[in-house]
Amino acid sequence: MKEILSGNEAIARGAYEAGVLVATAYPGTPSTEILENIIRYKEIDASWSPNEKVSLEVAMGASFAGARTLVAMKHVGVNVAADPLFTLSYTGIKGGLVLVSADDPEMHSSQNEQDNRNYAKFAKVPMLEPSDSGECKEFTRLALELSEQYDTPVMLRTTTRISHSKSIVELGERITGLPTPTLVKNAAKQVMLPGNARVRHPLVEERMNRLAAAADSMALNPMELRDSKIGIITSGVCYQYVREVLPDVSTLKLGLVHPLPSGLIREFAAKVDRLFVVEELDPFIEEQVKAMGIAVSGKDFLPICGELTPGMIRTAFAGQGIGIESSVPLVGDEAQAVNLPGRPPNMCPGCPHRGVFYTFNRLKAYVTGDIGCYTLGFLPPLSSMETCVCMGASIGNATGTVKVVSEEEKKKVVAVIGDSTFLHSGVTGLMDMVYNNSPSTVVILDNRITAMTGRQDNPASGFTLMDEPAHRIDLALLCTALGVKHVRVINPFDLEETRRVLQEEMERPETSVIITDKPCVLVKREGVFKRGPLYTVMVEKCTGCRACLGLGCPAIQWRATEGKKGVSFIDPTLCTGCDVCRQLCKFDAIGRAK
Ligand SMILES: Cc1ncc(C[n+]2csc(CCOP(=O)(O)OP(=O)(O)O)c2C)c(N)n1
Q1: CB 573 within 8 A of CB 534
Q2: Counting CB atoms within 10 angstroms of each CB, which of 245, 522, 540, 574 has the fewest?
Q3: Dihedral (C-alpha) 188, 191, 197, 201: value to the nearest 10 degrees?
Q4: What are phi and psi of 422, to 5 degrees?
């Protein structure tokens, strides 16, 4: 059976066919759909963790008992999971363990574009890099096999184009006959105190040497000889681009990007007149080839920042004086690139974050921000966010800022963070605020879901990934337990209440928390989000003052009118009846539609 699958769907399928029993993840684009697809395979216990470190620790525990496991995260998630990862490299595994790192060159939906191939080298673990969905499935299985063969976690690196593009995948059956997981006591291997870890480190080095030697004969690294004038070493989606725009050149396609097959690279280099590396982001392969004493070029004429594209590669090679023309017509997206009207990202109509950011704006607050839908509060017209670095950072940022600014300025500082982000890595920041007696205010925007990445459940939403009811963490109780004496829950659609409570808590010279309690409009469960009555603008009362446009609500638009400078108009197909615009119209021109 063949199916057209995305890279993420294919990885899920690969995990199923390879006999994976446990899969864990914290959502993050472009990795999220791996777990969302794994849940269709009932043989796999799949769960969202509160963060990536926990995901990897859960996967480790299952692997130590002998189960094949998969853990998935976006590239920056590996930073969070790095602590267990580096020592897992020493302990090794029992059941195969594959860690999927979904990188995001071009930062389509990320705060940086770090190249996680460096993690494989740094943590001394092998890394596979698929070039299409078929390989996503196959490499998932291979990663698990290599993991068990070499007693190591194996990283599988995708990029956004591989995760989200679709290609043909040949489906297979689920493997049977794997050993049943059971408790195995092996403290010398799994308790990494210095005496044991000192024994393990040389084994890690020896393992990587064995892998490097084996890499030369792995089918994962095919050498495809065509014209001998030019040879290109490449991997991942770049292999597809090279084949598309430079079909005649010879290629060495690396499926295993760490450790590199040095014998194969030497052999390939000797067979071609000029050698190039085509890779996105860092010169990861290129630097290692250079260190082998082989002449090679790549980042001297290809960009280090952002994604490559077929057109970009062809144009760059046309400038190399090697007889490659740049005049071949472009195909696909690049050919169709037309000037579409810009559509800036925006909070949805009825988003419970909007009124809070409107209030921040009016209070001229200095908002230390975080990552989630609410990061859009940075954009005009709300324009109320001064920092946004990584998940959880808002709280520590506020603590640090109030340590050094004047008493008056302290009252302007407020941290803002979503429910999922607070549980991911905000809790420890708040603990620090209380512990070190910081006079800061934290606003937790509890919309009952991890909205930004596509409405995933989290420990405060009351459901698991499998859609089973779960204990719903009471954020107010949690903050109280941490020692916050002033915890207030507000309705963010009530502008007067929001403003008053914010002002009071920002004035207070003690740690305080305000929790907003309205669900995301896109929350997937029936009955959680309730649509309000439809609102309309009474044209005869509208003075065209544009105050309502200051909310940046997509449902409120501007209409030219005869005799007047213009009026606001509420699109009935977008209005959710949140009531916020009505409250700020001084002329009572907004009311319920009849
Ligand atoms: C370390 C890390 N993991 C995952 C992500 C992807 N990500 C961005 S925001 C976010 C959570 C957003 O949920 P929440 O805080 O509840 O805010 P909401 O979008 O619902 O307003 C996630 C998972 C990331 N940026 N960094």
Answers
A1: no
A2: 540
A3: 80
A4: -60, -45
Model pLDDT for residues 306-317, shown as the tens digit of each residue: 999 999 999 999
Instruction: Give pLDDT, residue 452.
Output: 96
Q: Which atom of ligand 1 is nearest to the CA of 422?
A: 15
Q: What pLDDT does residue 236 have?
A: 98
Tokens of 100: 């999927």
What is the number of H-type helices and E-type strands within the chain? 22, 22
Cα–Cα distances in angstroms (integers) from residue 379 to residues 30, 218, 350, in the given order: 23, 50, 17
Residues sharing a CB contact under 8 Å with residue 505, sequence separation 6 or more, in sequence order: 441, 486, 488, 512, 514
| Rg over CA atoms, the chain | 27
Find the distance separating the first CA and the last CA of the chain, reported in whole Å: 56
User: How many angstroms separate the alpha carbon of residue 375 from the centre of ligand 1?
Assistant: 10
Supply the pTM of this predicted model: 0.96
Q: What are phi and psi of 151, to 5 degrees?
A: 55, 60
Give the helix/strand (H/E) hosting 209: helix 194-215
Three-class DSSP category at 475:
helix
The per-residue pLDDT for range 422-455, each reduced to its tens digit, is: 999 999 999 999 999 999 999 999 999 999 999 9
Atom of ligand 1 nearest to the CA of 445: 21
Residues 49-61: tens digit of each pLDDT: 999 999 999 999 9
Per the document, the length of the chain is: 594
Q: Which of 421, 445, 522 to mutate to test the pocket of ligand 1 (most atoms within 8 A of CB)?
A: 421
CB 257 within 8 A of CB 157: yes
Residues 498-509: pLDDT tens digits? 999 999 999 999
142: enclosing H helix or E strand: helix 133-150
Q: Which of 403, 402, 445 is nearest to 422 (CA)?
A: 445
334 pLDDT exceeds 70?
A: no
Give the residue from 552, 542, 497, 535 showing the smallest Cα distance to 361: 552
Q: Which residues make Cβ contacts (< 8 Å) with residue 42, sequence separation at least 6?
A: none
- Beta strand segments in 191-293, E: 223-224, 227-234, 249-253, 256-258, 274-278
Instruction: Give just the sign of the alpha carbon dihedral 177, 180, 185, 188.
Output: positive
- The token pair at 90 is 């020493």
Q: Kindly give the number of the ligand 1 atom that is closest to the alpha carbon of 452.
A: 19
Q: How far is the CA of 300 from the centre of ligand 1 (A)?
A: 36
> How does pLDDT run across 31-47, given as a tens digit for each residue?
999 999 999 999 999 99
Higher-confidence position of 163 and 329: 163
* Closest-CA residue to 144 (of 79, 74, 94, 212): 94
Residue with tokens 């490659």, as numbered in its chain: 324
High-pLDDT (> 90) share of the chain, %:
93
* Protein residue with its CA nearest to atom 24 in ligand 1: 28
Other beta carbons less than 10 A from residue 218's beta carbon? 17
Sorting pLDDT into bands at 50, 70 and 90, what band is 493?
very high
Tell me the residue ranges of DSSP E strands in 235-385. 249-253, 256-258, 274-278, 366-368
Answer yes or no: is pLDDT of 517 > 80: yes
Contact present, 390 and 369 (Cβ < 8 Å): no
Q: Which amino acid is at 514?
A: I
Say how far apart CA 38 and CA 45 lie, in whole Å: 9
pLDDT(328) > 90: no
